[in-house]
Structure formats: C-alpha cells, structure tokens
Specification:
This protein is mostly helical. The protein has seven helices and five strands, in the order ααββααβααββα. It is 49% helix and 9% strand. Strand 1 and strand 2 form a beta hairpin. The longest helix is centred in the N-terminal third of the chain and has 39 residues. It starts with a helix and ends with a helix.
C-alpha cells in the first residue's frame, strides 16, 4: 500500500497536470482565438496588415513606412532600421549626440535648404517605421517633386492637400500625410 506521502504527491501531480492543461487550452488556444476574432470583427483591415493594392498588386502597407529614392518621389521620415519591420527601433542617440553628418546627408538627399526644416524631415520616429510625415514636411518637398516630374507645383501641392489625414479621433496628434498613398496619387497623376 502506498504511503500517505506518495498519495499526496500523486494527487498534487494530477492537480498540477490538470491546471497546466486548463491554462494551456485557455491561454494557448481560447485567448488567441478570441483576440483574432475580435480583430476580424472590429478592425479587419488593420488585422490583415492594411495592405494597399494598385492594379490588384500589393504595393505596401498603410501602417508601415518604406524607402523611397529619387527626387521624383515624396520621402518619408528617416529610418534607423531601413524600414525593416523585424528590427524596428530608433537610433538610441541622445540629445547631445553628434548627428550633424546624418542631418547634412538627409538635407542633401531631400534637396532641403539650410533654413529651418520640419523636425520629422530630419529625425526618425521611435519605431523607424512611421508611414506618415507632417503636412509641413510634405509641403517642403513639393518644389523638388514638381521639378523632377515636370509638373506645376500647384498640382503637386493639391495632391498633398488631398492626401492630408485628420487628427486621430479628431483631436489626437497633428494632421499627417501617408507617404505611400501620396506617392500612389502622384504615380496616377503623372503616369509613371
């Protein structure tokens, strides 16, 4: 006959296995299923990645920035992670860090003058993946994009106005411009 101690140990072991099985089902199956289902019901587009399609082809996500090169495109904020979602993050540079070289390279690449510039034209977002720029940043790029495409600045500026999104919930943050959507509009305007 097993001892009392062995019976208590066996009972505790069975109880532990039951609790582990219950929590595995609850937290490993039911909870993720509930979160996924809620995402599908409440925010289907965001849960699917907010994919942007042009001519039935995915060209990007409205939630993630991407690299744009050349003077004919609007450029997003700089990215410390080169817009790679698997290594997102800021530069970890403090306020006293020497960033003059990076700022100078950015000014030259974006054809920015020496005067004051919108801060988001020269600084990365915390994640390095922000798909939006400020309206001031977009307006600062209008002359360069218009000249590179041979379009009147008023036409390109009109695209910026059309692509401007309101504040979140009508009062949070600032008005912003999604660079991918703006460049898609630009592509449609000039046919390239």
């Amino acid at each position: 006959m097993p001892s009392i101690r062995a019976r208590l140990l066996a009972r505790q072991l069975v109880a532990s296995v039951r609790v582990m099985a219950a929590f595995t089902v609850l937290l490993g199956l039911l909870y993720p299923l509930a979160v996924w289902g809620t995402g599908q019901l409440v925010a289907r587009d965001q849960a699917a990645g907010s994919l942007v399609r042009v001519d039935d082809r995915v060209v990007g996500s409205a939630l993630l920035g991407q690299q744009w090169t050349g003077p004919e495109w609007f450029h997003g904020r700089p990215s410390a992670s080169d817009y790679s979602g698997d290594v997102s993050g800021g530069t970890n540079l403090g306020p006293g860090a020497p960033v003059e070289g990076a700022v100078a390279r950015r000014r030259i690449r974006m054809d920015l003058g020496d005067g004051p510039q919108p801060p988001d034209a020269l600084t990365a977002s915390a994640s390095g993946l922000d798909p939006h720029i400020s309206v001031a940043n977009a307006e600062a790029q209008v002359a360069r994009v218009a000249a590179a495409r041979g379009l009147p600045p008023e036409v390109v500026g009109g695209l910026v106005v059309d692509a401007t999104e309101d504040r979140a919930l009508g009062f949070l943050g600032e008005e912003r411009v999604n660079v991918l959507r703006l460049n898609i509009g630009l592509r449609g305007l000039s046919g390239s």
